[in-house]
Design goal:
The structure holds two protein chains of two kinds.
Chain A (H helix, E strand, L loop, with lengths): L15 E12 L2 E12 L3 E5 L6 H9 L6 E6 L2 E2 L10 E4 L11 H11 L4 H14 L15 H13 L5 E5 L7 H18 L2 E6 L2 H7 L2 E6 L2 E6 L1 H6 L4 H6 L4 E10 L2 E5 L7 E4 L9 E6 L5 E3 L7 E12 L3 E8 L4 E7 L14 E6 L5 E3 L2
Parallel strand pairs in A: 3-8, 3-9, 6-7, 7-8
Antiparallel strand pairs in A: 1-2, 1-4, 4-5, 9-10, 11-12, 11-14, 12-13, 14-20, 15-19, 16-17, 16-19, 17-18
Helix pairs in contact in A: 2-3, 2-4, 3-4
Chain B lengths: L1 H28 L2 E2 L6 E2 L7 H11 L3 H8 L1 H34 L5 H9 L6 H12 L4 H9 L12 H26 L2 H9 L4 H12 L1 H16 L3 H6 L7 H11 L3 H33 L1
Antiparallel strand pairs in B: 1-2
Helix pairs in contact in B: 1-14, 3-14, 4-8, 4-11, 8-11, 9-10, 11-14, 13-14
Classes of the chains: A alpha+beta, B mainly alpha.
Chain lengths: 373, 296
């Protein structure tokens, strides 16, 4: 039995939950968001990823209602959000600092939003109990925020923002304050809760691993623009720009000149170096500058010259030992550095290569991605 | 050893500057008036040896404390002081909270300036500042002149030498003591708490009542004690601005000391005042400690 793939962004019939239409946001002279148009669909886990100052937080604050777009409109379920104040929106936010009310117990924090809606008492109690169960904090209901751990506080913040069953939940760097190990566990928990509740999540993060783990689609942002919004796999395997390729994961970028050859292009990148070949559907003029982006794990490293078209000779400059993997930095004769990664299936003492070794690097015609800029 | 010395310094300080003077006052309160220098008996005579010390203690009694209960002036003065301190503290809070709130929500680069403006009056003599209110509040003062020229009143208002003038003086003088702790509490507050409250469905006003106000509670309590405690024993403000009807224990104390030269009764009044003040001081300490625990 095949599962139906969740890809509403590829379905022309699907109605988006959120639509940004030519949204621009300026703070004085500074352009925080530059004329952006994109859609987010129901039940999506959408990640806004980018370095600090790229506009991802502004994007989120506009969704929450704390900022208004300077130009353009944001629609939530087809309705213009601009005139609706934050306290009237079916949108809740989980703050980076968690923003738990220090004078209220965990229970009262979660009930806070429900009480504002003047729901009957037993309904509130039932909903709070449900939320406490969801985040496994039943035992801590009467504690104050300063009496629980950071991870527990994070879960209280999540429960509080989910309590009102919002159409859209915004998460601002939700795991930023947790240590690495706890962060990993919490990432899967987040995905789990998102699937259980069926709420649309928009997460802001600068941690690409986090974005890749949790999100159904990742939007890579830079300078107020979304550079690419796609599934984690496509972002990684098929970046549309050098910026995205470079921002996500480890990559070697080789700049050269393209010449059409069969299904792809030949790339001349330096004098005295062999011509590389990469398959690509993109259009390049003969002699046009192109960038070949190649992931280190797709580069093989051997002692003898391999029998493939893309083979380069170099010496090992550096080895980064990561435990399960080792990344070799190999310097070619023209000083170009190429990264190659191998799995450490053998014990370290039996490693085949070491510093200053002369090695061959090779990859297939389809391993690299050819980009314009 | 080093620790012991470190701890000994503040204890010595308390002993020399608080406990010893207090014991002297307590001793005088148990003495009798005398036409002598100092104006009370007995005085301790060590040259008479053990006998002298015994004779000294035999002469001490609670006569002056009994006297305080026979004349209703004293308990009326205590009560009136408490009432004036309560009302004045409340008025100071009303005036100070919006100022502290405004300071805390002002842009960062403005705050040091605003803080300076609150503290600046302290650089002038307290006496001169209170005295200048006489010029403002008197029948021919600036306030009446202004109101008359604006046509708001046809007869000058009598403010000076009434309790109203005393309240104005106290609120003016003690305002910084109320503003600063409230400002400190508000300034520490995470701004995202208000956004969170709004996000969860609060209007600005309910967010204030449910989040800002409870979180500034400790600052309010601290400020109230800082105003209430010194106000009870206040002497300068009621004697400069208050009238003959303004009854405050500080004034009574002064009159006993300097007009009647009755040091023993004056000391007894001071000892009772201290006992009354111990209650709010203990409460204040407990509030501070609770706050520290909540933060720790």
């Amino acid at each position: 039995m095949s599962q139906t793939v969740f890809e509403p962004w590829n379905d022309p019939q699907a109605k988006p939950l959120i639509q940004f239409k030519n949204v621009t946001k300026r703070f004085g002279e500074f352009v925080a968001i530059d004329n952006q148009t994109f859609d987010i669909y129901e039940r999506e886990f959408f990640a806004l990823l980018g370095p600090s100052g790229c506009g991802k937080t502004t994007m989120m604050r506009m969704l929450a209602g704390f900022e208004k777009p300077t130009e353009g409109t944001i629609l939530l379920a087809g309705q213009d959000m601009a005139p609706i104040p934050p306290n009237k929106r079916a949108v809740n936010m989980m703050f980076q600092s968690y923003a738990l009310f220090p004078h209220l117990s965990v229970w009262d924090n979660i009930a806070f939003g429900l009480k504002r809606d003047r729901k009957p008492k037993d309904e509130i109690a039932e909903r709070v109990a449900q939320m406490l169960k969801l985040v496994r904090l039943e035992k801590f209901a009467q504690r104050k925020p300063h009496q629980i751990s950071g991870g527990q506080r994070q879960r209280v913040a999540l429960a509080r923002s989910l309590a009102k069953a919002p159409k859209l939940l915004l998460l601002d760097e939700p795991l930023g304050a947790l240590d690495a190990k706890l962060r990993q566990d919490t990432q899967f928990e987040l995905v789990d809760i998102q699937e259980k509740t069926g709420t649309t999540f928009v997460i802001v993060t600068h941690d690409q691993e986090e974005a890749m783990t949790v999100a159904s689609r990742v939007a890579v942002m830079d300078d107020g623009k979304i550079m690419q919004a796609d599934t984690p796999a496509n972002i990684y395997e098929r970046p549309n720009s050098v910026y995205v390729a470079d921002f996500i994961g480890d990559v070697t970028i080789i700049e050269g000149r393209a010449t059409k050859n069969g299904n792809g292009y030949d790339i001349d990148f330096a004098e005295g170096q062999p011509t590389l070949h990469a398959e690509s559907g993109k259009d390049f003029q003969n002699g046009q500058t192109c960038h070949l982006a190649i992931r280190p794990e797709k580069v093989a490293i051997t002692a003898d010259k391999p029998d493939t078209r893309n083979a380069l000779k170099g010496t090992i400059l550096d080895i980064a030992y990561l435990g399960n993997l080792s990344t070799y930095h190999v310097k070619l004769e023209n000083d170009q550095i190429i990264k190659a990664q191998t799995a450490n299936t053998r014990r370290l003492s039996r490693r085949s290569f070491t510093w200053e070794d002369s090695v061959w690097l090779s990859w297939t015609d389809t391993a690299g991605v050819l980009l314009e800029g | 050893m080093r620790r012991l010395i470190l701890i000994a310094v503040p204890y010595f300080w308390l002993l020399a500057l608080f406990l010893v003077p207090f014991l002297i006052v307590l001793k005088i309160s148990l003495s009798d008036t005398a036409l002598a220098i100092p104006p009370y008996t007995p005085t301790l005579d060590f040259s008479a040896g053990w006998e002298g010390i015994r004779a000294f203690f035999a002469e001490l009694d609670f006569e002056n404390f009994e006297f305080l209960t026979t004349d209703d002036l004293y308990w009326k003065a205590y009560l009136s002081s408490l009432k004036i301190a309560f009302v004045a503290t409340f008025l100071t809070l009303i005036v100070a909270y919006p100022i502290a709130y405004g300071m805390a929500s002002a842009p960062d680069h403005w705050r040091p300036t605003l803080m300076m403006l609150v503290i600046l009056p302290f650089w002038t003599s307290f006496l001169i500042r209170v005295y200048s209110w006489v010029g403002i509040l008197s029948n021919e003062g600036y306030l009446n002149q202004l109101l008359l020229s604006l046509g708001l009143i046809s007869e000058p208002l009598t403010i000076l030498n009434t309790n109203i003038a005393v309240y104005i003086g106290i609120v003016y003088t003690y305002l910084p003591f109320m503003i600063l702790p409230i400002y400190a509490a508000l300034e520490r507050m995470d701004a995202s708490l208000l956004e969170a409250a709004e996000d969860l469905g609060c209007s600005r006003l309910t967010a204030f009542w449910l989040v800002t106000f409870p979180l500034s509670k400790n600052g309010i309590i601290a400020g109230c004690f800082l105003v209430f405690i010194p106000t009870i024993g206040e002497f300068v403000i009621p004697s400069l601005l208050g009238g003959s009807k303004t009854l405050m224990i500080g004034k009574v104390l002064w009159e006993e000391f300097f007009n009647n030269r009755d040091w023993p009764v004056a000391s007894a009044v001071a000892v009772i005042l201290l006992l009354i003040l111990i209650i709010p001081i203990v409460l204040f300490q407990r509030n501070e400690q609770k706050q520290r625990e909540a933060e720790g």
